[in-house]
Amino acid sequence: MFMSKASVIDFFRACHSDTKLLEKFEQKNLPEVIFHAKSLGYSFNGEELAEVIGGMETQIITERMGEAIGANSSLWRKMWGKSRLHYVVEELFQAFSEAELKQFLN
């Protein structure tokens, strides 16, 4: 499981550093993202992807924003007008330092 989570983080890192890669993936549905990511060497499934994203959202909402998780969380407004992947890379992944990402995986 750790390696799969690390693969998710590596995939987000690649999308963050390569806007063409992000653009290529942001219009794909979940099965397509998983399939094409695997062809690039990133090995994770939908459950592992959701676990990493959910963990990041939880940490940002509860620890950084000091809010309860719910329909009125201010984080949700940051996804408006963006693809899901663009939101994840720009609003979630980018919010974590490398040290925090390593800690997050443990």
**Rg computed from alpha carbons, rounded to a whole number of angstroms:** 13 Å
Order of helices and strands: HHHHHH
Q: Number of DSSP strands?
A: 0
Enumerate the spans where pLDDT stays under 50 for 5 or more consecutive residues: none
Assess the beta-strand content as a share of residues. Answer: under 5%
Helical content (DSSP H or I, runs of 4+): 55-70%
InterPro entries: Nif11
Organism: Chroococcidiopsis cubana SAG 39.79
Protein name: Nif11 domain-containing protein
Pfam families: Nif11
Features:
106 residues, mainly alpha, 0% strand, globular
How would you sum up this structure, described in words?
- The chain has 106 residues and is an all-alpha fold.
- It is built from 6 helices and no strands.
- The termini are close together.
- InterPro entries: Nif11.
- It comes from Chroococcidiopsis cubana SAG 39.79.
- This is Nif11 domain-containing protein.
Walk me through the topology.
Elements (H helix, E strand, L loop, with lengths): L1 H16 L1 H8 L3 H10 L6 H19 L19 H9 L5 H8 L1
Organism: Chroococcidiopsis cubana SAG 39.79
Protein name: Nif11 domain-containing protein
Pfam families: Nif11 (PF07862)
Concise summary:
This protein has helices at residues 2-17, 19-26, 30-39, 46-64, 84-92, 98-105.
